[in-house]
Write a structure and sequence with these properties.
The complex is a heterotetramer of chains A (about 260), B (about 210), C (about 280) and D (about 220).
Chain B lengths: L5 H14 L7 H30 L9 H13 L8 H39 L7 H20 L11 H45 L3
Chain C lengths: L8 H17 L10 H11 L6 E6 L3 H20 L3 E6 L4 H12 L15 E3 L6 H10 L1 H4 L13 H4 L9 E4 L4 H11 L4 E5 L1 H13 L4 E5 H12 L4 H41 L1
Parallel strand pairs in C: 1-2, 1-4, 2-3, 4-5, 5-6
Helix pairs in contact in C: 1-11, 3-4, 3-10, 5-8, 10-11
Chain D lengths: L2 H27 L3 H38 L5 H21 L4 H20 L1 H12 L5 H16 L2 H4 L4 H38 L13
The chains are: A alpha/beta (about 260), B mainly alpha (about 210), C alpha/beta (about 280), D mainly alpha (about 220).
């Protein structure tokens, strides 16, 4: 009976891909369950993130020093998940700093991102009961939509305004050194996070969001149930992979290659 | 001897213009940047026209197929992405591209980046106790660092009870694993960026000025 | 203890620029050894049977791919010497220009006095859009994706393309581009074709896990250093050598400035401590 | 636009997306010649449709530049340069051909030269940045700076020549601790990518289709 089933499966599923297909199906199920629970109101706690705590502390220090905070949510448009995470951070920073009278400055290279930042700043001042302090273009600057014209403009903006804290969270690539070096010159505390050029951010930043921590930070800030549920679903899969690794390594230590064979590589 | 090739002169002058960035924002850098952006966009147009000619040329011959005609329509529809009002027209060809791209990325990521790495980590466990001490240490580091890194990247999982402390230590260790990787990567990046400066310097002083 | 003043960035940059000029005026000619992995790749290509088809392909940005270009040029010289055949498959918008640049610089074509004849030993395909979907389809049927070469010549008129129909005809895929993950995932992972990447120093660190996944099928050199090593193996001096030459001085400057930065910090802390002590 | 048309449109795009995704997955995981035919056809379609994406940049750029030039917005002069340069370049490219020596020379000596120079000068920022940020204040900076410096010196011939082991140390560090750190990220990145795919497939994530939603 078993061999008959095996041969039937063998006729349908390609050789060596059975486990990968099973894992994919499990991932579909886990993702959907997490989404379903999130939609029904389940909220998961997110572990403390060093970068986020540093940002909150940094706002206070900027208030003490009488210097502004500068936030840059990356060089991409709104289609990038990293930029959206950066905007979540920016929204929270603007809200908190406006409440205690610290100006939040921002720049970006994409015009659609600039529009969103401008709206966020206006809302933050209105919510803080200080709408008279808001002026379009006063806190948000645009230096061109090209990578390096933005970088040159941002560096000049930093040198002129001397922010006490520089936050770069979003989508960045090779232009990071040109901007972050200016931050180092004015002695700003730097917090950064991106996926593709994290090494360059890490070189300059005092606190970093490592890898997908930027999405965790965005979810923690917005408390968006679906975002948190996605994070939780991915965590279940990460736990599953850690489980596969631990079982596989234990068996391998006893001389059994069964998990490796099952993985089909 | 100084070069007499006009292309070399153009290249050298543009290099100088771009290096004025180190002095600060200035019109020379802006000109260089505009040339850069314009040529990049113009190149994509030239490539686009050439590729359209190559791919859709058969439409004017008896070898034309209905599929080719359909993809021409879909391709033209995709251009509507730039007009906000009619962007929805582009959603049809884009949905095909996203569908195929998503499927390809899922199967390839699953095989190579996920299962491939898991299989490799497990295999490496068997090599921790064989070979030279340097190799043994290397395999030990590979396995433990990967596991610690994975534990660090759990965000909503909280282990309570007696094992919570050890897991906390693993998580802290995971953070240092990433810092080690990032530090080593910056070190290796240096040779890349400085090599690009070298090529610019060689262009200016050897090719242009003939030193 | 006197406080060391902070250096201005412009002074540091001016100093570095002078350092860059030194090897141009007086070549340092720094010696370096050949890494095991570079030698291994060299030997793999060296031992390929005459007439084997090698693909140079992928997608990337030319300016970044300038770095892998150093080793690519050297390997093309080696291929021509060993009577191997090469097909260029550009999957990125600038890849065609990179392919032309490396082949022209290697001077292996008959027009440049080399042994290769276009269409017989080397064919350059045109840019193929479509990303990974194009690559996946091309692996199973080259002619269904592309029908002419970069000059517009029909593929059936090129003798080399008669022997190159699918992944089964590829002996080795070399990627001098940033987009190596696609090559590993689809060419090596799905079709089992061995692949080499002349990696950027940046991409060596991030693509190294692929070498561990496919230890007998994926190999990478490391940046300009790997390029210089490959040039040395093939026996000529190109951009790799120039980069390594200037790196000799720049690496010293890098260490010097880090040490200086720390001494500056130390003197500042000491000074602050002394001032605090005096206040007491 | 009436809501029923929007409804039909949304479902049509969803169905096309699912067909593309399922065909690609089915042809890989299952023994199915029919799925192979559909997938292969869709790959060819992708290549042809992808050709047109090359024109999107120029349309966007031109519409923005022309607007800025007509309203004499700040730095319109540079944009004017772009508007003049692009057609000239396109004519040159079409006349000479992309694989010609003339085109190659023009492209290499402008765009590539500039790109290499701009990227290269980041090296200067990295050195002055290292001077300021690699100051050992805590364990984190100690670890980070030492890792960087070890690789910087081990890659240098002045150390490699008297101490050939430097090359081995460099590769050992890159192939072991560095590789393992990135591998953890690669694994979670792959999980993230597959989950993103699943969410797109299940209609929980609109991804790039967001860009084409009617406003």
């Amino acid at each position: 009976m078993i061999s008959a089933t095996d041969s039937l499966v063998g006729q349908i599923v390609k050789k060596g891909l059975g486990f990968q297909l099973t894992l994919l199906i499990i991932m579909v199920i886990l993702t959907y369950i997490a989404y379903y629970l999130g939609k029904r109101g389940r909220v998961w706690e997110i572990r403390p993130l060093e970068g986020l705590e540093a940002i909150y502390e940094g706002i206070g220090r900027c208030a003490e020093m009488g210097r502004p905070v500068m936030v840059i949510p990356g060089i991409s448009g709104l289609g990038s998940a990293e930029t959206l995470a950066g905007l979540s951070v920016l929204g929270e920073v603007t809200k908190r700093s406006t409440e205690i009278g610290v100006p939040t400055l921002a720049t970006a290279s994409s015009t659609e991102t600039i529009m969103v930042i401008e709206a966020m700043t206006r809302n933050a001042y209105t919510a803080a009961g200080k709408p008279e302090l808001y002026e379009p273009g006063k806190y948000v600057r645009w230096f061109g939509s090209d990578q390096f014209s933005y970088a040159v403009g941002a560096a000049g903006y930093i040198l002129a305004e001397k922010p006490g804290m520089l936050i770069q969270v979003g989508y960045f690539i090779a232009e990071i050194p040109a901007v972050a070096e200016a931050g180092a010159r004015v002695g700003a505390i730097q917090v950064g996070g991106t996926l593709s050029s994290m090494d360059l951010i890490a070189m300059f930043a005092d606190y970093i969001f490592i890898g997908e921590e930027i999405f965790a930070a965005a979810a923690a800030i917005t408390q968006d149930r679906i975002q948190i549920a996605t994070l939780a679903g991915q965590d279940w899969i990460r736990l599953l992979t850690i489980g596969i690794l631990v079982v596989g390594m234990t068996l391998m230590a006893t001389g059994s290659k069964v998990i490796v064979d099952l993985l089909g590589m | 001897m100084i070069s007499t090739d006009p292309w070399v002169w153009l290249s050298a002058l543009l290099t100088i213009c771009s290096y004025t960035l180190l002095y600060g924002d200035n019109p020379l850098f802006r000109i260089a940047e505009q040339v850069f952006v314009s040529v990049a966009v113009a190149h994509s147009v030239v490539m686009g026209i050439t590729t359209v000619n190559t791919r859709f040329g058969p439409l004017l011959t008896p070898a034309a197929t209905p599929q080719l005609f359909i993809t021409l329509i879909l391709g033209l529809m995709s251009l509507f992405v730039v007009w906000r009002k009619y962007a929805w027209i582009a959603s049809i060809p884009i949905s095909i591209m996203i569908g195929v791209g998503t499927g390809l990325s899922m199967r390839a990521m699953m095989r190579t980046d996920l299962v491939g790495n898991l299989s490799t980590v497990i295999m490496e466990t068997s090599r921790i106790f064989v070979g030279s001490p340097t190799d043994q240490l290397g395999y030990f580091i590979r396995v433990t660092f990967t596991l610690a890194g994975l534990v660090y990247l759990l965000f909503t999982v909280f282990i309570r009870g007696p094992v919570s402390k050890p897991v906390g230590y693993i998580r802290t260790f995971g953070k240092y694993v990433f810092l080690t990787y990032l530090g080593l990567q910056v070190g290796n990046d240096i040779i890349m960026f400085q090599g690009l400066v070298t090529s610019a310097v060689v262009r200016l002083f050897t090719t242009w000025l003939g030193i | 203890m006197a406080k060391i003043p902070e250096l201005k960035s412009h002074h540091i940059w001016a100093f570095c620029l002078i350092l860059y000029l030194i090897p141009v005026v007086v070549p340092v000619g720094s010696p370096f050894q050949i890494s095991e992995i570079t030698l291994k790749i060299y030997n793999i290509i060296e031992n390929l049977p005459e007439g084997s088809i090698i693909v140079m392909g992928g997608s990337g940005v030319f300016a970044f791919d300038y770095e892998p270009g150093a080793a690519m040029i050297a390997s093309i010289k080696q291929m021509a010497k060993n009577k191997l055949r090469l097909v260029g498959i550009p999957l990125g918008m600038e890849s065609l220009q990179l392919h032309k640049y490396v082949v022209d610089t290697a001077k292996v074509m008959q027009a440049d006095g080399g042994p290769w004849k276009y269409g017989v030993d080397y064919v350059q395909l045109p840019f193929i859009p479509g990303g990974d979907a194009a690559l996946v389809r091309l692996l199973t049927s080259v002619q269904s994706v592309v029908t002419v070469d970069a000059n517009g010549t029909p593929l059936e008129n090129l003798p080399l393309m008669k022997d190159f129909r699918s992944y089964k005809d590829i002996t080795l895929w070399i990627c001098p581009h940033w987009g190596y993950p696609s090559i590993v995932r689809y060419v090596t992972g799905e079709r089992g074709v061995p692949s080499v990447m002349f990696a950027h120093a940046y991409s060596y660190t991030v693509y190294a896990p692929y070498m561990m996944i496919y230890p007998d099928k994926v190999w990478m050199t490391n940046g300009f250093l790997g390029g210089a090593q490959y040039e040395k193996l093939v026996g000529f001096k190109g951009l790799g050598h120039a980069a390594v030459d200037s790196y000799t001085l720049i690496s010293v400057a890098y260490v010097f400035f880090v040490v200086l930065g720390n001494i500056t910090l130390l003197t500042r802390v000491k000074k602050e401590e002394e001032e605090a002590e005096a206040k007491k | 636009m009436s809501s029923s048309i929007i409804y039909v449109r949304t479902y049509l795009t969803r169905i096309l997306l699912i067909i593309g995704c399922i065909a690609t997955l089915t042809s890989w995981y299952f023994v199915s010649p029919h799925a192979d035919i559909v997938a292969n056809e869709l790959y060819n379609w992708n290549v042809n449709i992808g050709t047109f994406s090359l024109f999107v940049g120029v349309v966007t750029l031109f519409s923005r530049y022309l607007k800025d030039i007509s309203s004499r917005k700040e730095q319109w002069e540079y944009k004017f340069l772009g508007v003049v340069l692009i057609p000239i370049w396109v004519i040159m490219g079409q006349t000479a051909g992309v694989f010609s020596d003339l085109y190659q020379k023009a492209y290499f000596n402008t765009k590539i030269t500039l790109h290499v120079a701009i990227l290269g000068q980041l090296m200067f920022f990295m050195i002055s940045g290292a001077y300021r940020t690699y100051r050992i204040r805590n364990f984190r900076t100690l670890l980070f700076a030492s890792c960087t410096l070890i690789i910087v010196v081990c890659n240098a011939s002045w150390l490699m020549t008297p101490f050939p082991i430097a090359d081995k140390i460099s590769y050992w560090l890159l192939n072991n601790p560095s590789m393992a750190g990135y591998r953890a990220m690669m694994i979670t990145g792959a999980i993230g990518a597959v989950v993103m795919g699943i969410r797109i497939l299940l209609g929980l994530e609109r991804g790039a289709l967001r860009a084409t939603e009617a406003r």
